[in-house]
Amino acid sequence: MSLVHLVLLAALLSLVTAASSSPGSRSILRDIGGGNADQKDKAVELNSTNFDSVLHDTPAKYAVVEFFAHWCPACRNYKPHYEKVARLFNGPDAIHPGTVLMTRVDCAMKTNTKLCDRFDVSHYPMLFWGPPTKFVSGSGEPKKTKSELLVIDDGRTAERLLNWINKQLGSSYGLDDQKFENEHVMSNITDYKQISQAVYDIEEATAVAFDIIIEHKAIKSSETSASFIRFIQLLAAHHPSRRCRKGTAEILVNYDDLCPSGKCSYEVSGGKDTLGNFPICGKDVPRGYYMFCRGSKNDTRGFSCGLWVLMHSLSVRIEDGESHFAFTALCDFVNNFFMCDECRLHFNDMCLSVKTPFKKARDFVLWVWSTHNKVNERLIKDEASLGTGDPKFPKMIWPPKELCPSCYLSSSQKNIEWDEDQVYKFLKNYYGPKLISLYKEKSVMGSKKETITATEDMTVATNALVVPIGAALAIAVASCAFGALACYWRTQQKNRKPRRSWN
Ligand SMILES: Cc1cc2nc3c(=O)[nH]c(=O)nc-3n(C[C@H](O)[C@H](O)[C@H](O)COP(=O)(O)OP(=O)(O)OC[C@H]3O[C@@H](n4cnc5c(N)ncnc54)[C@H](O)[C@@H]3O)c2cc1C
Protein backbone atom coordinates (compact mmCIF):
# COMPACT_ATOMS: atom_id res chain seq x y z
CA MET A 1 0.00 0.00 0.00
CA SER A 2 1.47 3.36 -1.05
CA LEU A 3 1.84 6.35 1.25
CA VAL A 4 -0.94 8.14 -0.62
CA HIS A 5 -3.31 5.21 0.04
CA LEU A 6 -2.41 5.21 3.70
CA VAL A 7 -3.10 8.93 4.02
CA LEU A 8 -6.45 8.53 2.23
CA LEU A 9 -7.40 5.58 4.44
CA ALA A 10 -6.50 7.54 7.58
CA ALA A 11 -8.55 10.50 6.37
CA LEU A 12 -11.55 8.26 5.66
CA LEU A 13 -11.25 6.56 9.05
CA SER A 14 -11.10 9.88 10.85
CA LEU A 15 -14.21 10.99 8.96
CA VAL A 16 -16.10 7.87 9.95
CA THR A 17 -14.91 8.11 13.56
CA ALA A 18 -15.93 11.74 13.70
CA ALA A 19 -19.28 10.87 12.18
CA SER A 20 -20.07 8.15 14.65
CA SER A 21 -18.92 10.08 17.69
CA SER A 22 -20.57 13.41 17.19
CA PRO A 23 -24.25 13.73 16.42
CA GLY A 24 -23.73 16.89 14.44
CA SER A 25 -21.54 15.11 11.94
CA ARG A 26 -24.08 12.48 10.99
CA SER A 27 -24.67 14.27 7.71
CA ILE A 28 -21.09 13.49 6.70
CA LEU A 29 -21.74 9.77 6.94
CA ARG A 30 -25.05 10.06 5.13
CA ASP A 31 -23.45 12.11 2.39
CA ILE A 32 -20.86 9.40 1.78
CA GLY A 33 -23.72 6.89 1.43
CA GLY A 34 -25.96 9.32 -0.41
CA GLY A 35 -23.50 9.54 -3.24
CA ASN A 36 -24.34 13.05 -4.33
CA ALA A 37 -23.38 15.46 -1.60
CA ASP A 38 -24.13 18.44 -3.84
CA GLN A 39 -27.80 17.68 -4.16
CA LYS A 40 -29.85 19.04 -1.25
CA ASP A 41 -31.94 16.44 0.52
CA LYS A 42 -35.60 16.62 -0.33
CA ALA A 43 -36.96 14.68 2.66
CA VAL A 44 -37.60 17.03 5.58
CA GLU A 45 -35.46 16.29 8.63
CA LEU A 46 -37.71 16.25 11.69
CA ASN A 47 -36.79 16.16 15.36
CA SER A 48 -38.56 16.34 18.70
CA THR A 49 -38.74 20.13 18.45
CA ASN A 50 -40.24 20.61 15.00
CA PHE A 51 -42.06 17.26 14.54
CA ASP A 52 -45.51 18.38 15.69
CA SER A 53 -45.46 21.83 14.14
CA VAL A 54 -44.24 20.74 10.71
CA LEU A 55 -46.74 17.88 10.51
CA HIS A 56 -49.57 20.00 11.83
CA ASP A 57 -48.94 22.85 9.42
CA THR A 58 -48.13 20.97 6.24
CA PRO A 59 -50.61 21.42 3.41
CA ALA A 60 -49.89 17.85 2.27
CA LYS A 61 -52.72 15.32 2.58
CA TYR A 62 -50.44 12.47 3.68
CA ALA A 63 -47.05 12.12 5.30
CA VAL A 64 -44.38 9.45 5.30
CA VAL A 65 -42.09 9.42 8.33
CA GLU A 66 -38.89 7.40 8.06
CA PHE A 67 -37.41 6.52 11.44
CA PHE A 68 -33.72 5.74 10.97
CA ALA A 69 -30.43 5.81 12.85
CA HIS A 70 -27.46 7.63 11.43
CA TRP A 71 -25.11 4.77 12.32
CA CYS A 72 -27.20 2.14 10.51
CA PRO A 73 -25.56 1.05 7.22
CA ALA A 74 -28.89 -0.19 5.78
CA CYS A 75 -30.40 3.25 6.40
CA ARG A 76 -27.46 4.84 4.64
CA ASN A 77 -28.01 2.63 1.61
CA TYR A 78 -31.75 3.25 1.74
CA LYS A 79 -31.38 7.02 1.65
CA PRO A 80 -30.95 7.40 -2.14
CA HIS A 81 -34.12 5.31 -2.64
CA TYR A 82 -36.11 7.41 -0.20
CA GLU A 83 -34.78 10.63 -1.71
CA LYS A 84 -35.80 9.50 -5.21
CA VAL A 85 -39.39 9.33 -4.03
CA ALA A 86 -39.12 12.49 -1.90
CA ARG A 87 -38.03 14.39 -5.03
CA LEU A 88 -41.51 13.82 -6.44
CA PHE A 89 -43.35 15.30 -3.47
CA ASN A 90 -41.10 17.72 -1.55
CA GLY A 91 -39.36 21.00 -2.15
CA PRO A 92 -39.72 23.86 -4.58
CA ASP A 93 -39.31 21.57 -7.59
CA ALA A 94 -41.80 18.96 -6.40
CA ILE A 95 -43.42 17.10 -9.25
CA HIS A 96 -46.63 16.37 -7.32
CA PRO A 97 -46.78 19.05 -4.61
CA GLY A 98 -49.26 19.04 -1.77
CA THR A 99 -49.84 15.30 -1.91
CA VAL A 100 -47.33 13.64 0.40
CA LEU A 101 -44.81 15.14 2.82
CA MET A 102 -41.73 12.90 3.01
CA THR A 103 -39.84 13.24 6.30
CA ARG A 104 -37.22 11.47 8.40
CA VAL A 105 -36.34 11.30 12.07
CA ASP A 106 -32.93 10.23 13.36
CA CYS A 107 -33.68 7.97 16.32
CA ALA A 108 -29.99 7.76 17.24
CA MET A 109 -30.13 11.37 18.37
CA LYS A 110 -30.73 11.34 22.13
CA THR A 111 -33.15 14.23 21.84
CA ASN A 112 -35.42 12.13 19.61
CA THR A 113 -35.58 9.05 21.87
CA LYS A 114 -39.01 9.82 23.31
CA LEU A 115 -40.38 10.65 19.88
CA CYS A 116 -39.22 7.32 18.43
CA ASP A 117 -40.53 5.46 21.49
CA ARG A 118 -43.94 6.96 20.89
CA PHE A 119 -44.07 5.12 17.57
CA ASP A 120 -42.64 1.84 18.91
CA VAL A 121 -39.85 1.95 16.37
CA SER A 122 -38.59 -1.64 16.31
CA HIS A 123 -36.10 -1.59 13.43
CA TYR A 124 -34.32 0.81 11.10
CA PRO A 125 -35.38 2.11 8.74
CA MET A 126 -39.06 1.94 9.70
CA LEU A 127 -41.57 3.87 7.65
CA PHE A 128 -45.02 5.11 8.69
CA TRP A 129 -47.79 6.48 6.52
CA GLY A 130 -50.88 8.51 7.40
CA PRO A 131 -52.60 11.90 7.49
CA PRO A 132 -50.03 14.36 8.91
CA THR A 133 -52.19 15.42 11.86
CA LYS A 134 -52.43 11.80 13.04
CA PHE A 135 -48.69 11.85 13.76
CA VAL A 136 -48.96 14.88 16.01
CA SER A 137 -48.81 14.24 19.76
CA GLY A 138 -52.21 14.49 21.36
CA SER A 139 -53.97 13.11 18.29
CA GLY A 140 -54.21 9.77 20.09
CA GLU A 141 -51.48 7.21 20.74
CA PRO A 142 -49.99 5.93 17.48
CA LYS A 143 -50.86 2.36 18.49
CA LYS A 144 -54.52 3.29 18.87
CA THR A 145 -54.72 5.21 15.61
CA LYS A 146 -53.24 2.24 13.76
CA SER A 147 -56.05 2.18 11.25
CA GLU A 148 -54.93 5.60 10.06
CA LEU A 149 -51.16 5.29 10.63
CA LEU A 150 -49.82 2.40 8.62
CA VAL A 151 -46.39 0.84 8.70
CA ILE A 152 -45.07 0.72 5.15
CA ASP A 153 -44.17 -2.93 4.80
CA ASP A 154 -43.03 -2.93 1.21
CA GLY A 155 -40.79 0.04 0.56
CA ARG A 156 -37.30 -1.41 0.28
CA THR A 157 -36.56 0.26 -3.03
CA ALA A 158 -37.71 3.54 -4.54
CA GLU A 159 -39.90 1.63 -7.03
CA ARG A 160 -41.56 -0.46 -4.33
CA LEU A 161 -42.10 2.50 -2.04
CA LEU A 162 -43.73 4.50 -4.83
CA ASN A 163 -45.88 1.48 -5.75
CA TRP A 164 -47.04 1.26 -2.16
CA ILE A 165 -47.87 4.97 -2.12
CA ASN A 166 -49.66 4.71 -5.46
CA LYS A 167 -51.85 1.96 -4.04
CA GLN A 168 -52.85 4.18 -1.10
CA LEU A 169 -53.56 7.19 -3.30
CA GLY A 170 -55.05 5.34 -6.25
CA SER A 171 -52.49 7.20 -8.33
CA SER A 172 -50.02 6.14 -10.99
CA TYR A 173 -47.03 8.34 -10.22
CA GLY A 174 -43.73 7.25 -11.74
CA LEU A 175 -40.15 7.91 -10.63
CA ASP A 176 -39.47 9.56 -13.99
CA ASP A 177 -42.40 11.98 -13.83
CA GLN A 178 -41.39 15.47 -14.82
CA LYS A 179 -42.38 18.78 -13.33
CA PHE A 180 -45.58 20.45 -14.47
CA GLU A 181 -47.49 17.58 -15.87
CA ASN A 182 -51.06 18.67 -16.32
CA GLU A 183 -52.71 16.54 -13.74
CA HIS A 184 -51.49 18.36 -10.61
CA VAL A 185 -52.14 21.89 -11.78
CA MET A 186 -55.41 23.19 -10.39
CA SER A 187 -56.69 24.36 -13.72
CA ASN A 188 -60.32 23.72 -12.86
CA ILE A 189 -61.04 27.26 -11.73
CA THR A 190 -64.68 26.46 -11.26
CA ASP A 191 -63.92 24.13 -8.35
CA TYR A 192 -65.05 26.19 -5.41
CA LYS A 193 -63.14 24.05 -2.90
CA GLN A 194 -59.70 24.85 -4.27
CA ILE A 195 -59.50 28.19 -2.50
CA SER A 196 -59.03 26.31 0.79
CA GLN A 197 -55.48 25.45 -0.36
CA ALA A 198 -54.67 29.11 -0.90
CA VAL A 199 -53.95 29.97 2.72
CA TYR A 200 -50.55 28.29 2.33
CA ASP A 201 -49.89 30.30 -0.81
CA ILE A 202 -50.76 33.48 1.07
CA GLU A 203 -48.30 32.56 3.81
CA GLU A 204 -45.61 32.02 1.23
CA ALA A 205 -46.43 35.22 -0.65
CA THR A 206 -46.27 37.16 2.64
CA ALA A 207 -42.87 35.67 3.43
CA VAL A 208 -41.61 36.41 -0.08
CA ALA A 209 -42.89 40.01 0.06
CA PHE A 210 -41.02 40.43 3.33
CA ASP A 211 -37.85 38.83 1.89
CA ILE A 212 -37.97 41.31 -0.98
CA ILE A 213 -38.19 44.23 1.47
CA ILE A 214 -35.18 42.85 3.36
CA GLU A 215 -33.20 42.09 0.20
CA HIS A 216 -33.77 45.56 -1.22
CA LYS A 217 -33.35 47.29 2.13
CA ALA A 218 -36.58 48.95 1.08
CA ILE A 219 -37.42 50.82 4.29
CA LYS A 220 -35.41 53.86 3.34
CA SER A 221 -37.24 56.86 4.76
CA SER A 222 -39.74 57.87 7.40
CA GLU A 223 -42.42 57.62 4.70
CA THR A 224 -41.56 54.02 3.75
CA SER A 225 -41.15 53.17 7.43
CA ALA A 226 -44.68 54.45 8.16
CA SER A 227 -46.00 52.56 5.14
CA PHE A 228 -44.33 49.34 6.32
CA ILE A 229 -45.81 49.75 9.81
CA ARG A 230 -49.31 50.32 8.42
CA PHE A 231 -49.10 47.21 6.29
CA ILE A 232 -47.77 45.14 9.19
CA GLN A 233 -50.59 46.44 11.40
CA LEU A 234 -53.09 45.30 8.81
CA LEU A 235 -51.49 41.84 8.68
CA ALA A 236 -51.18 41.51 12.47
CA ALA A 237 -54.91 42.09 12.84
CA HIS A 238 -56.35 40.40 9.77
CA HIS A 239 -53.97 37.96 8.07
CA PRO A 240 -55.91 34.71 7.55
CA SER A 241 -52.96 32.67 8.83
CA ARG A 242 -52.43 32.58 12.57
CA ARG A 243 -48.66 32.19 12.25
CA CYS A 244 -48.44 35.26 10.00
CA ARG A 245 -50.54 37.27 12.47
CA LYS A 246 -48.18 36.20 15.21
CA GLY A 247 -45.03 36.92 13.19
CA THR A 248 -46.18 40.35 12.10
CA ALA A 249 -47.30 41.25 15.63
CA GLU A 250 -43.81 40.31 16.84
CA ILE A 251 -42.25 42.66 14.32
CA LEU A 252 -44.65 45.39 15.35
CA VAL A 253 -43.88 45.03 19.02
CA ASN A 254 -40.13 45.07 18.38
CA TYR A 255 -40.11 47.61 15.59
CA ASP A 256 -38.49 50.43 17.61
CA ASP A 257 -35.54 48.20 18.46
CA LEU A 258 -35.26 46.70 14.98
CA CYS A 259 -35.55 49.99 13.12
CA PRO A 260 -34.50 52.80 15.46
CA SER A 261 -35.50 56.12 13.84
CA GLY A 262 -36.69 54.16 10.80
CA LYS A 263 -33.16 52.79 10.14
CA CYS A 264 -33.53 49.03 10.03
CA SER A 265 -30.81 46.46 10.29
CA TYR A 266 -31.34 43.83 7.63
CA GLU A 267 -28.63 41.33 8.53
CA VAL A 268 -29.95 37.78 8.08
CA SER A 269 -27.32 35.83 9.96
CA GLY A 270 -25.49 35.79 13.24
CA GLY A 271 -28.58 35.21 15.36
CA LYS A 272 -28.92 38.92 16.11
CA ASP A 273 -32.22 40.67 16.62
CA THR A 274 -32.54 42.24 13.22
CA LEU A 275 -35.50 42.72 10.92
CA GLY A 276 -33.86 40.24 8.54
CA ASN A 277 -33.91 37.59 11.26
CA PHE A 278 -37.65 37.76 11.86
CA PRO A 279 -39.57 34.90 10.24
CA ILE A 280 -42.68 36.88 9.39
CA CYS A 281 -44.90 33.79 9.17
CA GLY A 282 -42.86 31.43 11.34
CA LYS A 283 -39.72 29.59 10.41
CA ASP A 284 -41.46 26.58 8.90
CA VAL A 285 -43.50 28.38 6.28
CA PRO A 286 -43.41 26.37 3.04
CA ARG A 287 -41.33 27.70 0.17
CA GLY A 288 -41.97 26.91 -3.47
CA TYR A 289 -45.11 24.99 -2.65
CA TYR A 290 -47.66 27.21 -4.37
CA MET A 291 -50.72 25.09 -4.98
CA PHE A 292 -53.75 27.28 -5.62
CA CYS A 293 -51.36 29.71 -7.34
CA ARG A 294 -49.23 27.10 -9.06
CA GLY A 295 -48.67 27.85 -12.73
CA SER A 296 -48.25 25.34 -15.51
CA LYS A 297 -44.93 27.00 -16.35
CA ASN A 298 -42.04 27.79 -14.04
CA ASP A 299 -42.30 31.53 -14.42
CA THR A 300 -46.03 32.12 -14.21
CA ARG A 301 -48.40 32.79 -11.27
CA GLY A 302 -46.92 32.08 -7.80
CA PHE A 303 -45.99 35.19 -5.86
CA SER A 304 -48.14 37.80 -7.63
CA CYS A 305 -51.16 35.50 -7.50
CA GLY A 306 -50.51 34.93 -3.78
CA LEU A 307 -50.32 38.67 -3.24
CA TRP A 308 -53.70 39.24 -4.88
CA VAL A 309 -55.27 36.49 -2.80
CA LEU A 310 -53.74 38.07 0.31
CA MET A 311 -55.22 41.45 -0.61
CA HIS A 312 -58.71 40.01 -1.19
CA SER A 313 -58.56 37.96 1.99
CA LEU A 314 -57.56 41.04 4.00
CA SER A 315 -60.31 43.12 2.44
CA VAL A 316 -63.07 40.73 3.54
CA ARG A 317 -61.80 40.67 7.12
CA ILE A 318 -61.87 44.36 7.94
CA GLU A 319 -64.61 46.40 9.62
CA ASP A 320 -66.32 49.50 8.24
CA GLY A 321 -64.23 51.83 10.41
CA GLU A 322 -61.00 50.35 9.11
CA SER A 323 -61.81 50.46 5.43
CA HIS A 324 -59.97 53.62 4.51
CA PHE A 325 -56.94 52.72 6.63
CA ALA A 326 -56.80 49.32 4.91
CA PHE A 327 -57.08 50.98 1.50
CA THR A 328 -54.19 53.35 2.29
CA ALA A 329 -52.09 50.53 3.75
CA LEU A 330 -52.52 48.39 0.60
CA CYS A 331 -51.95 51.24 -1.83
CA ASP A 332 -48.80 52.40 -0.03
CA PHE A 333 -47.52 48.87 0.29
CA VAL A 334 -47.81 48.21 -3.44
CA ASN A 335 -46.40 51.63 -4.27
CA ASN A 336 -43.38 51.32 -1.97
CA PHE A 337 -42.62 47.62 -1.87
CA PHE A 338 -43.98 45.82 -4.95
CA MET A 339 -40.92 45.83 -7.16
CA CYS A 340 -42.78 45.34 -10.45
CA ASP A 341 -42.68 48.85 -11.83
CA GLU A 342 -45.50 48.57 -14.35
CA CYS A 343 -47.77 46.92 -11.76
CA ARG A 344 -46.92 49.52 -9.16
CA LEU A 345 -47.60 52.47 -11.45
CA HIS A 346 -50.90 51.16 -12.79
CA PHE A 347 -52.07 50.24 -9.34
CA ASN A 348 -51.07 53.62 -7.97
CA ASP A 349 -53.16 55.33 -10.68
CA MET A 350 -56.16 53.31 -9.57
CA CYS A 351 -55.48 54.25 -5.94
CA LEU A 352 -55.24 57.93 -6.84
CA SER A 353 -58.56 57.77 -8.64
CA VAL A 354 -60.32 57.20 -5.30
CA LYS A 355 -61.30 60.71 -4.22
CA THR A 356 -63.58 60.08 -1.25
CA PRO A 357 -62.43 58.02 1.73
CA PHE A 358 -64.09 54.62 2.07
CA LYS A 359 -66.63 54.44 4.87
CA LYS A 360 -67.86 50.91 4.36
CA ALA A 361 -65.86 47.68 4.30
CA ARG A 362 -68.15 46.53 1.48
CA ASP A 363 -66.97 49.38 -0.72
CA PHE A 364 -63.34 48.48 -0.09
CA VAL A 365 -63.94 44.77 -0.84
CA LEU A 366 -65.60 45.70 -4.12
CA TRP A 367 -62.86 48.21 -4.94
CA VAL A 368 -60.12 45.56 -4.62
CA TRP A 369 -62.23 43.18 -6.70
CA SER A 370 -62.93 45.68 -9.49
CA THR A 371 -59.32 46.91 -9.47
CA HIS A 372 -58.14 43.34 -9.92
CA ASN A 373 -60.62 42.95 -12.78
CA LYS A 374 -59.25 46.09 -14.44
CA VAL A 375 -55.77 44.54 -14.30
CA ASN A 376 -57.23 41.29 -15.68
CA GLU A 377 -58.92 43.16 -18.49
CA ARG A 378 -55.66 44.79 -19.54
CA LEU A 379 -53.71 41.55 -19.26
CA ILE A 380 -56.26 39.59 -21.32
CA LYS A 381 -55.22 41.78 -24.25
CA ASP A 382 -51.49 41.92 -23.44
CA GLU A 383 -51.16 38.20 -22.92
CA ALA A 384 -53.09 37.39 -26.09
CA SER A 385 -50.82 39.56 -28.19
CA LEU A 386 -47.54 38.70 -26.46
CA GLY A 387 -48.23 35.07 -25.62
CA THR A 388 -46.83 35.62 -22.12
CA GLY A 389 -49.75 34.25 -20.10
CA ASP A 390 -50.14 30.86 -18.56
CA PRO A 391 -51.97 28.72 -21.14
CA LYS A 392 -53.73 26.80 -18.38
CA PHE A 393 -54.84 29.95 -16.55
CA PRO A 394 -55.97 32.51 -19.08
CA LYS A 395 -56.92 35.84 -17.53
CA MET A 396 -60.64 36.39 -17.19
CA ILE A 397 -63.13 38.79 -15.73
CA TRP A 398 -63.78 37.25 -12.38
CA PRO A 399 -65.70 35.45 -10.87
CA PRO A 400 -66.78 33.39 -13.88
CA LYS A 401 -70.46 32.45 -14.04
CA GLU A 402 -69.62 28.86 -13.07
CA LEU A 403 -68.29 30.05 -9.72
CA CYS A 404 -71.00 32.59 -8.97
CA PRO A 405 -74.07 32.50 -11.22
CA SER A 406 -75.97 34.88 -8.95
CA CYS A 407 -73.25 37.54 -9.34
CA TYR A 408 -74.43 38.10 -12.92
CA LEU A 409 -77.48 40.23 -13.68
CA SER A 410 -76.76 40.01 -17.37
CA SER A 411 -73.78 39.58 -19.57
CA SER A 412 -72.98 40.17 -23.19
CA GLN A 413 -69.77 39.88 -25.15
CA LYS A 414 -68.87 43.44 -24.28
CA ASN A 415 -70.51 44.12 -20.99
CA ILE A 416 -71.24 42.40 -17.72
CA GLU A 417 -73.86 43.77 -15.40
CA TRP A 418 -72.99 42.67 -11.91
CA ASP A 419 -75.24 42.19 -8.92
CA GLU A 420 -72.78 43.78 -6.51
CA ASP A 421 -74.63 42.58 -3.40
CA GLN A 422 -74.18 39.02 -4.64
CA VAL A 423 -70.54 39.67 -5.61
CA TYR A 424 -69.87 41.04 -2.13
CA LYS A 425 -71.58 38.05 -0.51
CA PHE A 426 -69.61 35.67 -2.70
CA LEU A 427 -66.24 37.36 -2.00
CA LYS A 428 -66.90 37.47 1.76
CA ASN A 429 -67.47 33.73 1.85
CA TYR A 430 -64.86 32.71 -0.72
CA TYR A 431 -61.96 34.68 0.75
CA GLY A 432 -63.34 34.38 4.31
CA PRO A 433 -64.49 31.07 5.85
CA LYS A 434 -63.93 29.04 2.68
CA LEU A 435 -60.28 30.10 2.48
CA ILE A 436 -59.46 28.95 6.00
CA SER A 437 -61.69 25.88 6.00
CA LEU A 438 -58.75 23.50 5.57
CA TYR A 439 -56.95 25.08 8.53
CA LYS A 440 -60.07 24.67 10.64
CA GLU A 441 -60.66 21.13 9.45
CA LYS A 442 -57.09 20.17 10.38
CA SER A 443 -57.50 21.65 13.81
CA VAL A 444 -60.74 19.86 14.47
CA MET A 445 -59.18 16.56 13.41
CA GLY A 446 -56.16 17.17 15.58
CA SER A 447 -55.41 17.26 19.26
CA LYS A 448 -57.03 19.17 22.08
CA LYS A 449 -54.22 21.68 21.74
CA GLU A 450 -55.08 22.10 18.08
CA THR A 451 -58.74 22.56 18.89
CA ILE A 452 -57.68 25.44 21.10
CA THR A 453 -55.65 26.72 18.18
CA ALA A 454 -58.74 26.60 15.99
CA THR A 455 -60.82 28.42 18.54
CA GLU A 456 -58.03 30.93 18.95
CA ASP A 457 -57.89 31.33 15.19
CA MET A 458 -61.56 32.11 15.07
CA THR A 459 -61.37 34.31 18.15
CA VAL A 460 -58.59 36.42 16.74
CA ALA A 461 -60.40 36.69 13.46
CA THR A 462 -63.62 37.68 15.21
CA ASN A 463 -61.93 40.09 17.59
CA ALA A 464 -59.98 41.52 14.74
CA LEU A 465 -63.25 42.45 13.11
CA VAL A 466 -64.27 44.63 16.00
CA VAL A 467 -60.85 46.19 16.64
CA PRO A 468 -60.29 49.27 14.50
CA ILE A 469 -57.05 48.73 12.73
CA GLY A 470 -55.80 52.22 13.52
CA ALA A 471 -55.69 51.10 17.13
CA ALA A 472 -53.64 47.97 16.45
CA LEU A 473 -50.32 49.47 17.51
CA ALA A 474 -51.84 51.09 20.55
CA ILE A 475 -53.34 47.74 21.46
CA ALA A 476 -49.96 46.09 21.08
CA VAL A 477 -48.44 48.48 23.60
CA ALA A 478 -51.32 49.18 25.94
CA SER A 479 -53.44 46.07 26.23
CA CYS A 480 -52.51 43.90 29.20
CA ALA A 481 -53.04 40.63 27.43
CA PHE A 482 -51.13 41.70 24.41
CA GLY A 483 -48.43 43.18 26.67
CA ALA A 484 -47.92 39.83 28.32
CA LEU A 485 -47.76 38.21 24.94
CA ALA A 486 -45.24 40.78 23.84
CA CYS A 487 -43.06 39.98 26.87
CA TYR A 488 -43.25 36.32 25.95
CA TRP A 489 -42.26 37.08 22.40
CA ARG A 490 -39.40 39.25 23.54
CA THR A 491 -38.10 36.40 25.71
CA GLN A 492 -38.48 33.98 22.84
CA GLN A 493 -36.67 36.37 20.63
CA LYS A 494 -33.58 36.28 22.84
CA ASN A 495 -33.13 32.63 21.85
CA ARG A 496 -33.92 33.28 18.22
CA LYS A 497 -31.97 31.45 15.58
CA PRO A 498 -31.36 32.76 12.07
CA ARG A 499 -34.23 32.36 9.63
CA ARG A 500 -34.30 29.31 7.44
CA SER A 501 -36.63 28.00 4.79
CA TRP A 502 -38.53 24.80 5.24
CA ASN A 503 -36.75 22.54 2.86
C1 LIG B 1 -51.17 44.79 -7.20
C2 LIG B 1 -50.81 44.04 -8.44
C3 LIG B 1 -50.76 44.70 -9.65
C4 LIG B 1 -50.37 44.02 -10.82
N1 LIG B 1 -50.26 44.69 -12.00
C5 LIG B 1 -49.81 44.05 -13.11
C6 LIG B 1 -49.59 44.74 -14.34
O1 LIG B 1 -49.78 45.93 -14.43
N2 LIG B 1 -49.10 44.03 -15.40
C7 LIG B 1 -48.84 42.68 -15.32
O2 LIG B 1 -48.41 42.08 -16.30
N3 LIG B 1 -49.07 41.99 -14.16
C8 LIG B 1 -49.54 42.64 -13.07
N4 LIG B 1 -49.74 41.95 -11.90
C9 LIG B 1 -49.64 40.49 -11.92
C10 LIG B 1 -50.95 39.87 -12.45
O3 LIG B 1 -52.09 40.58 -11.99
C11 LIG B 1 -51.13 38.43 -12.01
O4 LIG B 1 -50.99 38.36 -10.63
C12 LIG B 1 -50.16 37.47 -12.64
O5 LIG B 1 -50.19 37.60 -14.03
C13 LIG B 1 -50.54 36.01 -12.27
O6 LIG B 1 -51.85 35.77 -12.73
P1 LIG B 1 -52.78 34.60 -12.23
O7 LIG B 1 -53.29 33.84 -13.40
O8 LIG B 1 -52.10 33.81 -11.21
O9 LIG B 1 -54.06 35.30 -11.59
P2 LIG B 1 -54.12 36.62 -10.65
O10 LIG B 1 -54.57 37.72 -11.48
O11 LIG B 1 -52.83 36.73 -9.95
O12 LIG B 1 -55.26 36.20 -9.67
C14 LIG B 1 -55.07 35.24 -8.65
C15 LIG B 1 -56.39 34.56 -8.36
O13 LIG B 1 -57.32 35.52 -7.85
C16 LIG B 1 -58.64 35.22 -8.30
N5 LIG B 1 -59.13 36.42 -8.98
C17 LIG B 1 -58.91 36.82 -10.24
N6 LIG B 1 -59.51 38.00 -10.46
C18 LIG B 1 -60.12 38.35 -9.31
C19 LIG B 1 -60.92 39.46 -8.91
N7 LIG B 1 -61.23 40.44 -9.76
N8 LIG B 1 -61.37 39.49 -7.65
C20 LIG B 1 -61.12 38.51 -6.79
N9 LIG B 1 -60.37 37.43 -7.11
C21 LIG B 1 -59.88 37.35 -8.36
C22 LIG B 1 -58.54 34.02 -9.21
O14 LIG B 1 -58.84 32.86 -8.46
C23 LIG B 1 -57.07 33.99 -9.60
O15 LIG B 1 -56.62 32.69 -9.86
C24 LIG B 1 -50.10 42.63 -10.74
C25 LIG B 1 -50.18 41.97 -9.52
C26 LIG B 1 -50.53 42.65 -8.37
C27 LIG B 1 -50.58 41.93 -7.05
TrEMBL record:
Residues 296-398 form the ERV/ALR sulfhydryl oxidase domain. Its EC number is 1.8.3.2. Its cofactor is FAD. GO terms for molecular function: flavin-dependent sulfhydryl oxidase activity; protein disulfide isomerase activity. It is found in: Secreted. One of its GO terms (biological process) is protein folding. Residues 35-170 form the Thioredoxin domain. InterPro entries: ERV/ALR_sulphydryl_oxid_sf (IPR036774), ERV/ALR_sulphydryl_oxidase (IPR017905), Sulfhydryl_oxidase (IPR039798), Thioredoxin-like_sf (IPR036249), Thioredoxin_CS (IPR017937), Thioredoxin_domain (IPR013766). It catalyses: 2 R'C(R)SH + O2 = R'C(R)S-S(R)CR' + H2O2. Keywords: Disulfide bond, FAD, Flavoprotein, Glycoprotein, Membrane, Oxidoreductase, Redox-active center, Secreted, Signal, Transmembrane, Transmembrane helix. The chain crosses the membrane at residues 465-489. One of its GO terms (cellular component) is Golgi membrane. Residues 1-18 form the signal peptide. Its main location: secreted. Pfam families: Evr1_Alr, Thioredoxin. This is Sulfhydryl oxidase. It comes from Arabis alpina (Alpine rock-cress). The lineage of its organism: Eukaryota, Viridiplantae, Streptophyta, Embryophyta, Tracheophyta.
